[in-house]
Amino acid sequence: MGGCCTSKSTTAIKGIKEKDDKDRIEIIKETKSETFGGLKVRYAYMSQRGYYPDDLRKPNQDAFSIEKNFCGESSDAFFGVYDGHGQDGTECAQFARELLPSTISRLILQAKSIGSTFGKKDTDSSAQTNINGISDIQLRNACTSGHNICNAAMHRDSGFDSSLSGTTAVSCYIQGKSNRITICNVGDSRVVLGKQTSTDNSSGAKGSVAQMYKAIPLSSDQTPYRLDERKRIREAGGRVLTFDQIEGIEPINEDDDELGTLCNLGEELDEGGDPPRVWSTAGDYPGTAFTRSLGDKIAENFGVFSKPEILTQNLESRDKILVLASDGVYEFLTNQSVIDICAKFKDPLEACRAIVAESYELWLKYELRTDDITIICIFIDDVDEVAELKADGTDCLDSQAVDGPVRPVRTGVSKEKAKLLLDLKDDMKKVNSTEDNSKSGLDIMQFYKDKTSEEMSIIKNAVSASTNFQGITSDVLAMIYMAMEPVEVKKDDWVISQGTIGDRFYVVDHGEFNVLVVPKDAKDDLGHGGDLVHVYSGSNKTNVHPSFGEIALFHSTLRAASVIARTDGKLWALHGDVFRIIMAEKKKRQKLATLLSKEQELKQFDSEKLEKMVGAVQCHIYEKGDLIVNKGDVGHFIYVICHGTTETSVTKTNKAKYLKEDEMFGKEILLSKTSKYNKKVEATATSICWQLDTSLLK
Questions:
Q1: Please, which of 93, 160, 396, 666 could form a disulfide with 314 given CB 3.0 to 4.6 Å?
Q2: Which CATH class is domain 439-580?
Q3: Do 483 and 444 contact (CB within 8 A), yes or no?
C-alpha cells in the first residue's frame, strides 16, 4: 500500500473471536520473579504457532515445562523446551513435557537416597557427594536414564504413533544451593548463556549496552552437520544425504567425510533450505534432520537415539541471561543476536516478544512458511557469592562452554521462496510496463521530518533490533531515522494489503496489528483479509517496537500478507526508494573518502579532519550554464563531481578544460594565502557535485 492507511471495512472481522485466534497463535506468560537458593531470577516464556500456508490450522508442535520445587527442593527448578515433528509431533512434545521432568526428578531422588552411583562404587573425586546431595556422575546418570525411559515410554503409548514422529528436548536444571546448572540436550534446540563483559558503556561499539554481553553456547546442535554425529550415524547403518541427493539432483560423495569437507558442502546446501538428513539404506525414509531425538522409533535403526549431551557448570556474578529456545529462533538468528536483543530489555517477557517477532519476520523473508517458535528467557539478577563453593569448601569450576553453534542455521532463501520471488518479479514487470515507477527525480529531503528526542529513541531502539540494519554506520542510520514518517492509524485500518506493491517498511510505535494471509489459489470473498497468522504488538511503556515489511527496502514486490490495525496506534514508515538512495549515498561517501586520500593537497591534513569533512559533505545540483565558482572569489569549499556523464568547463587562459565524474576542483584555496579561486567553473550540462567545507580542516 502507500504511505497512509486506508479505512477499508473489516466488519466481518469483528465477528471473529479475535482473542481466541490470537491465543491459538501465541502462548505467553507474565514475568515471574523467584529466588532459587543463591540465585535471584526473573523469567518469562512465549510460544508461537508457525504459519503453514498448506495447513493454516496446524497445531503448535512445540511445548515447554517450568517446574519449581524440583526434586522437592525450593532452591531447585527445571526449565525445558520440546520441539515436536512428524504427524504426531504435537503429542510427542506434550508427552515429553509431562513425563521427562518427573522421571528425572524421581531418579535424582533415588540417587540421593541410596548414596551410590546407581549400584556402582566410585572412588574418584567426581563421585563425591556435593552440596546438592548428589555426585556429578549420579546426576549425569539420572539425566541420561530419564531421557531413555521417557523415550521407551513414548514408544509404548497407544494414544499416538512415534515411529516416524518425535521431539527434541533441551533443558536447564537449576541447583540454587550451589549456583549450578545442568544442561541436557537431545536434538537441535539450544541453550545460550549471556555473560557480562563490561559494567559500563565504554565497551563495545559506541558503548552499546547490547554489546556488553557475550553469547556462550551451552548446547551443541545434534545434526548431520557435525562430523562426529555423521560418522556415528553411518557406523549404525544409516545414510546422510540431502533431499536433492536422494532425488539424484546432486551428486553423492561420502568420501568427503574423510577430509571433513562435507560439513562445508552441507552449509552451502542448507542456504537453499536443503540440510543433510538421516536415511535408511533401503529407501527414502525416515529423513530426520537431526541425529538425536525422543521418539522416531524407525530412525533408531539407523543411529538416531535419545541419549542427551550433558553439561554441568557453575554460575557466577557475570552470568546474566539464560535462553532456552527451539530451532525456530536459531534458523536465521545467531546466538549473539539473541543475547543482544535480550540485553535491550529490563523485562524478560519483552525480550521474548522481541526475539519471536524478529524470528518470525526473518522466516517470512527467507521462507514461504514459519516454524513454531518457543523461547524461555531467564534474567539472573543476583548470584550469592557465598554459595559459589562446593560442599568441601573448594572453589567452583570455571565457566565452561561447549563447541556449540554460534551462527544461524542459514542466511539464504529457500528454493521455494526463491521461485516465488522470481514469480513476483515477473508480476512486477507486468505492472511496471503500464505504470511509470521512475524515482529518478525523488527528493529525499521531503521525507525528512523533525522528531523529538523521545521519538528518535523509539525509532533507534526498534531499528537496532532488526538484522536488516546491522553493519550500517551511525551517520547513515541517523539519515534513516530522520527519513522515517509518522503514520497514525485507527482500528480496522489496512496498513498493507496482500498482493499490492510494497514500498514501505514499518516500525510499530504503539498498538496491535493483525497479520492475515489468503492462501494460494484461494479468494477473500468476504474481505476479511484472510487467516490470522501473527499479531505485532508495540508499546512505548515496555519499549517493544516490532517491525515489518522490510523486503520493500531492497526492491519493490507484491506483498505476501495483509496487515490490519487491531487497535488504534502509530507507525513509523520508511520509503524503500529513500532507503536505497541513502544507502547509495553511503557508498558514494566511502568512494569520496578514498578519492580525497589520494589528493596531494590534502595529505597535510590528518585522517580525522578529513573524515569529519566527508561526514558533513553537501550534495548540490547545477544546471547547464550555472556558475559554480568564480575566479578571484574567496573560497570556502572544494568540489568533486559525483554524478552523471556531463562535463564541467574550466576556463583558464581562454582555454576550456573539461572535468568529468570523480574529478576535483577548487583545491587551490588550500594552498593560497588569500584562499581565492584561480579559475572560473561553470556547468556545461546538468551536474551533481559534492561540496566540501574546508573550514572543518582547521
A1: 396
A2: mainly beta
A3: yes
Fold of domain 31-222+290-387: Phosphatase 2c; domain 1 (3.60.40)
C-alpha cell at 346: 529490563
Residue whose entry in the numeric block shows the C-alpha cell 594552498? 671
602-697 CATH choice from 1.10.260.40, 3.20.20.140, 2.60.120.10, 2.60.120.330: 2.60.120.10
- The answer to whether residue 86 scores a pLDDT higher than 90 is yes
Amino acid, res. 209? V
Identify which has the larger pLDDT, 404 or 14.
404
Domain boundaries, the chain: 31-222+290-387, 439-580, 602-697
Q: How confident is the model at residue 1 (pLDDT cuts 50, 70, 90)?
A: very low
Could you tell me which of 57, 64, 26, 25 has the C-alpha nearest to residue 43?
64
Radius of gyration of the chain (CA): 30
What digits encode the pLDDT tens for the residues 254-287? 655 544 444 443 444 455 567 889 999 888 889 9
Helix (H, G, I), strand (E, B) or coil at 381: strand
Q: What's at 584, amino acid-wise?
A: A
Q: How far is CA 36 from CA 109, 316, 648, in A?
A: 18, 14, 75
In Å, how far from its chain's centre is CA 175? 31
Three state DSSP letters for 337-368: HHHHHHHCCCCHHHHHHHHHHHHHHHHHHHCC
Count of helix runs (H) and strand runs (E) in the chain? 16, 34
With 0-12 CB in 10 A as exposed, 13-18 as middle and 19+ as buried, what is 533?
buried
Instruction: Out of 98-112, 355-369, 630-644, 679-693, give the one with best mean pLDDT.
Output: 98-112
For every residue of 219-254, DSSP letters joined together read S---STTSHHHHHHHHHTT-EEE-HHHHTTSS---T
CA distance 64 to 33: 18
Between strands 485-489 and 373-383, the pairing is: unpaired
Q: Which residues contact 40 (CB under 8 A, 6 or more apart)?
A: 33, 34, 380, 381, 382
Please report, rounded to a whole number, the percentage of residues in the chain having pLDDT higher than 90.
36
Whether residue 286 has a cis bond before it, omega within 30° of 0: yes
In 3D, which of 388, 400, 203 has the Cα closest to residue 309? 400
When the pLDDT of each residue in the chain is averaged and rounded to a whole number, the result is 79
pLDDT band with cut points at 50, 70 and 90 for residue 463: confident
Structure confidence at residue 538 as a pLDDT band (50, 70, 90): confident
pLDDT tens sequence across 58-75? 899 999 999 999 999 999
31-222+290-387 matches 602-697 in fold: no
Q: Each residue of 589-620: pLDDT tens digit?
A: 777 777 887 787 787 777 777 777 777 777 67
- State residue 65's pLDDT score: 95
Report which DSSP code applies to 305: B
Q: Are 398 and 320 in contact (CB under 8 A)?
A: no
Task: Work out the number of other CB atoms within 10 angstroms of the CB of residue 492.
Answer: 19
Distance of alpha carbon 674 from alpha carbon 679, whole angstroms? 14
